[in-house]
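#onboarding

Welcome to the new folks! Below is a worked example of what a typical request in this channel looks like: someone posts a single protein sequence, and someone else replies with the predicted structure as tokens. Don't worry about understanding the tokens yet, we'll cover that in week two.

Example request:
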Amino acid sequence: MLELIVYPKPENKRLINNSPFCAKAEIYLNLNKIKHTVFEYTGDPAKFPNGKLPVIKHNEQIIPDSSLIQKFLDKEHKIDMDSHLSNAEKAQGFAFAKMCEEYFYWSLLHERWFIDENWKNLKEQYFNNIPALIRGPITKMIRKQAKKSAIGHGMSLHPDETVLSLGKECLKALSDFLANKPFLLGDNLSSYDATAYAFISSVLHSPLGPELRKEAESYRNLREYDTRMYERVFS
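Example response:
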């Protein structure tokens, strides 16, 4: 059976995974009713391709990256969740998915990892499996590496207030585009809902980013979308 390998899952079932990318992979598998097991990995992800999670293990093959996992599953299981969409609608879905993954993600990361009060809580939740004697230096190194990546992207070159305001703009754009539609692109599910839901649920149900969570909670349609998607994915 196919195995999905992810970072450890939180106790809150509505927060599918602390990593939106791990959540996205699990959502996609569930939406398409693909039999799988979920393995929560507590070791160093550097042993896997790209040094990150999620990955899936299919027979002896390891496929990394949530987007590549999705493409692999589409080919392996002959899935086309977007056959009902026009090319223009697919372009809209792609644009919003990449806004979440390539832009909003860095605001989310910044709030959780680089605002000291939030980092303290994150460190206690994410890294409590590391022995106490070495937890300090290891987490300091991990945070430093994350900060280097965020600065390289450009988001974390800005002050905290600017980074959060940019993240809030993304949430408003998602809310405005979703409007009164049941799903991101209309009355029917599409592959892009896996990404949108992964990020919206991550914001709404994680205590580690209070400012962005408060902003997401202010949009009724995002809250309702989160509930609707949870029922669809995990029913």
